[in-house]
Every structure is written in structure tokens, then in C-alpha cells.
Amino acid sequence: MEGIIYLDNAATTYPKPQSVYDYMHEFYQRHGVNPGRSGYDMCMATEEVIHATRTMLTTLFNGSDPNRLTFSYDASDSLNMIIQGMVQRGDHVVTTNLEHNSVLRPLYHLEHDKIIDVTYVPFDSEGYIDPGDIRKAITAKTKMVIMNHCSNVIGTVQPVAAVGRICREAGVYFAIDASQTAGAIPIDIEEMNIDLLAFTGHKCLMGPTGIGGSYVRENVPIKSTKFGGTGVRSAHRFHLEEFPYRLECGTLNVVGVAGLNAGLKWIQKQGMDALHKKEMALWSRLRSGVEEVGGAVAYCAKDTKNHNPVLSINIEGWEAGDVGTMFDMDYNIACRTGLQCAPLVHVGIGTDSIHGTVRLSIGPFNTEEHIDTAVEAVRQIASVKQK
Q1: pLDDT at 116
Q2: Over the range 92-118, which residues count as b (16 or more CB within 10 Å of their CB) and which as e?
Q3: Which among 136, 201, 281, 372 has most CB atoms closer than 10 A?
């Protein structure tokens, strides 16, 4: 991996800050026991880190109760719990064509089984949802609107505050997938009228894989979809209704939570806004460089406003997968190609029929030299005509 130029941060940030690696190692050696199950010192110390991390995340999202911040495997796990825990037979759900399969597939299954109806709202030519289209899609049977905060393919940050106001006025629950924004873009569940939020730890929050979670506001009637041990009231036959147990069961990924704790502290030290500003400056350099290359196209990348540092491109005459292979083999650049688990986005930008795009996504450890190398790679590949 020496010398690699890593431009796949929308999949998972890499590398992590050294403080994350160090704290996970130290924590698991000293406190790698089951939290909240017993009263001995190691157990109590582990639970303190768990609760501290709940509190830090609750503050990050401007929530009110750390117990309503629950942990899961990742955002996909939490989104499944949100969708399946909120809807029932006969309900209508509104979503968008920008969604990741972690939202689309649970909805598809419920729709296929004739449990719910779903409306899919399109995005415009620049990659944004019109809140007015959400308003038009809401019916008397609409239970929930669920949408991502930022597209993992084209990097556009959606107007969730405006959509949240519409949902609140209509008496509809509003859920967001914050996989691409938690830790990078400010999220205020009060100001944005968000009822349910799903996040993952291994992207902008700088934690490890295998840890994520959700935040659920008070008076949101989400049902438990997992049942098992909680370490509390073990003689009770049914899973507990109170938070955090309602959405958690079994032993938590304690080392993952510890890594998330360290990642949050690193972000706070660096400054979330400062990190995002730096990454978007690199994104602008990448975008302008690619746009100067004849035969290269960048999708939905008009400017830096309401955007994350994610750029999807193609090179005329080349399959995205072949470009990705050349990036890897010839230039030591790691990127993501194909449909990026979000097929409806590619339908919307017209890349579904050409097997998707080359996605270049920037993280906090990328440099101008990395970006210049990537632009030069695009230039050299574009100069070669396939026979």
C-alpha cells in the first residue's frame, strides 16, 4: 500500500488518524469487556466510554437525549431498522432517486411484498431534489419521507431543512441517511426537523468499519426489529421498549465505539468546517483539472455550493471499470467505479447504460500532489484512443 493515492473516501476514509488506531488498541487491551452487564471496574469503564460517545454524537446532531443515540453495525443496518420499524401495511413512503441501496432495497422488498407503496422523486440536472416535488408526492397515506443528506455518487448535499419543514407541516415523519455527511456537514435535527437519522462511523466520522447508528427523536413510534439480550431485566419475556435497548441487542462492538470516540475527538480538534473547506478546495482543483481535458466529463459538478468532495467522471471511449484498473495499475490511484450501490442516480445522469462512472472522493489526508497526479492520469488516458 506504500505510495498509494487513495481517492475512495466516500466508501471509507483511509487512512484513519493515528490517534484512532492508538486509542482502539489501548482501549481493547484495557477495557475489552462487555459493557453494562456487571458492576466490576473494567465493565463500568467500558460503559463510560460507550455513554460518552453517545453523548458526543448527540451533541454533534443537536439531539436532546443520549440514550436515543443507538449503535448498530453501520448505516445500512440502522436504515433497515428505521424503515422496517416505522412502516406497516398500507403505508406510503416518499424517497428519491438519489438513494443508496441501503434505502432502496428495504423499500423494494416491502413494495414487492405489497406491504407499502413508494414514490421515487427525481433530481434535477444539477443533482438536487426540489422540496416542492416532495410536497407534491405526500399523500394522506404517507407515513415517512426518507432521503439521503448527500449523494454518494455525485456529492450533492440536499436541502433537508426545507424538506423537514414540509414534512413537519404535513405531519409526516422525516428520516435522513447521513452516511456521507455525519462528521463533515453540520446536522441539526431540531433546525432541520429530522425525526430519524442514520449514520455510519467509517466515513467522515473517521472511525473503523463495523460501527454506525441512529438517532430517534422523542415521540417517534419506531418498533423494535431485533430481539435479544440487553443485560437489563433479563427475566422479562419481551424486548425492552426504552432507549437505547429498543434498537440495540446483544454485545456492542465496543472497540468500534472506542474508535468512533477517538475519531470524533480528532474532528473536533481539527475543526469540521476547516476539514471540509480544505477538501472542497482540493475538489475544485480536481474538477477544474478534469474539465480542461478533452473527452473527459464530470457529472453534476457546477460549483462548490452544497457539495461534498466527491466527483464522478467518465472518459470518452473508455469503460469506467477499465479506467479504474488503469488508475490502480499504472498510477497507484485507488478509486471506485461502476454504479456505486446507487443505480437510480446513474439512470438520472444517463450513465446506467455505460456501466456507471469513475468516482474520485477526497479525504482529509489527500494533498494537491495527489490531485495533480489524478488529473494527469485522466489526461494521459484520454489521449489514448482505443482501437
Answers
A1: 98
A2: bbbbbbbbbbbbbbbbeebeeeeebbb
A3: 201
Dist CA 299 CA 152 (whole Å):
13
- 94, three cell numbers: 416518499
Count the helices and strands in the chain (H runs, E runs). Answer: 11, 13
Q: What is the pLDDT of residues 94-108, one digit of tens each?
A: 999 999 999 999 999
The residues pairing with 152 across neighbouring beta strands, listed in sequence order, are: none
Give the whole-angstrom CA distance, residue 347 versus residue 356: 9
Dist. CA 189–CA 90, nearest whole Å: 28
Number of Cβ within 10 Å of residue 21's Cβ equals 14
Q: What is the CA radius of gyration of the chain?
A: 21
169 within domain boundaries: yes
**Edge-to-edge strands of the sheet including 336-338?**
296-298, 310-315, 357-361, 336-338
Given this model, what pLDDT does residue 387 score? 42
Q: Is residue 208 part of a domain?
A: yes
The reported pLDDT for the residue numbered 1 is 53
Let me know: does 188 contact 62? Beta carbons within 8 Å.
yes
Crossing angle of helices 18-31 and 254-270, rounded to 10°: 150
**How crowded is the C-beta side of 49, counted as CA atoms within 13 Å?**
29
CB 206 within 8 A of CB 13: yes
Is 188 inside any structural domain? Answer: yes
Domain membership of residue 144 as a residue range: 18-269
Place of cell 439531539: 63
Number of domains in the chain: 2
226 and 173 in a common domain: yes
| pLDDT-flagged residues of the chain (< 50) | 387
Task: With 0.90 as the threshold, say if the pTM is over it.
Answer: yes
Cβ atoms < 10 Å from Cβ of 353: 8
pLDDT for the residue 87: 98
CA distance 138 to 92: 8
Residue 155 sits at the vertex; the CA angle it makes with 386 and 142, to the nearest 5 degrees, is: 125
Give the Cα separation of 208 and 12 in Å (integer).
Answer: 9
Whole-number Å distance between alpha carbons of 240 and 246? 6
Q: Residue 194's closest CA among 159, 165, 155, 219?
A: 165
Choose the final residue of a domain: 254, 269, 284: 269
Q: Is 295 helix (H, G, I), strand (E, B) or coil?
A: coil
